[in-house]
Design goal:
single chain; 7 helices; 35% helix; Spore Coat Polysaccharide Biosynthesis Protein SpsA, Chain A; alpha/beta; 7-stranded mixed β-sheet; two-stranded parallel ribbon; 232 residues
């Protein structure tokens, strides 16, 4: 599609990978702007981004932390007719973005999926099992029309926001609700397979401790039930 694309990034202590991710996006995605919200990184991430001399790069820094609200801040400050989101440490997946954008000719939202033919997950056993469990609950409680509710890597037409707006609080669980509301609004969603690589040691925020991991799992389950019964 010959339209301007905004790729949104949320960062917290991504110094080892952020420049590579930004470089890959500019390399592979035509007519693109990158909008980054940094959540008060203390490892130089913000300074690395600010040092990149490109007028198509916007960066915002704030003291608060939260993936969902960081996504919303970047979304508000984006201007592309196509909007996409990818994890800052998944630069190896950037070459798939053009294929995703091309699928927007027929679909309103295109997301990468580990749970369709051709997809996979190479992370630790506990992370694979927890992800499969959460997605199984999503398919039972919400809809089985989506296989991977939690990949969080997607592109969409901007006009999607005229029908459904992300309710951006919490962590990545906000994306579950966004997809469910999009389905119920009649939007067409396409899944493309991908394999999630092992977490880069020190960069996984969700697996930084068992306590945080368990709390996030509970948050996801609560959000699933809130999503199911929230009035659309």
């Amino acid at each position: 599609m010959d339209k301007k694309t905004s790729i949104l990034l949320s960062t917290y202590n991504e110094a080892p990978v952020i420049k590579k991710t930004i470089d890959e996006i500019f390399k592979h995605v035509e007519d693109v702007e990158i909008v980054v919200t940094d959540d008060n990184s203390n490892d130089g991430t913000y300074e690395i981004i600010k040092a990149i001399n490109n007028s198509k790069l916007k960066v915002f820094s704030r003291k608060d932390r939260g993936l969902a609200s960081a996504f919303l801040l970047s979304l508000i400050n984006s201007s592309g007719e196509i909007v996409g989101w990818i994890d800052s440490n998944m630069n190896s997946l950037v070459p798939k973005i053009p294929e995703m954008i091309n699928n927007l000719e027929k679909y309103e939202i295109v997301l990468l999926s580990r749970y369709i033919e051709g997809g996979g997950d190479e992370r630790s056993k506990i992370r694979r099992l927890s992800s499969k469990f959460i997605n199984s609950i999503c398919r039972i409680i919400l809809s089985n029309k989506i296989n991977d509710y939690t990949s969080g890597i997607f592109v969409m037409r901007r006009e999607v926001l005229q029908k459904v707006v992300p309710i951006s609080y919490g962590h990545g669980e906000f994306f579950i609700e966004f997809l469910f509301r999009a389905l119920n609004s009649g939007l067409k969603i396409k899944e493309i397979p991908y394999t999630q690589s092992p977490d880069i040691e020190g960069l996984s925020k969700t697996a930084s401790s068992y306590m945080i991991f368990f709390k996030l799992g509970i948050d996801y389950l609560v959000r699933i039930f809130i999503t199911r019964f929230r009035k659309l």
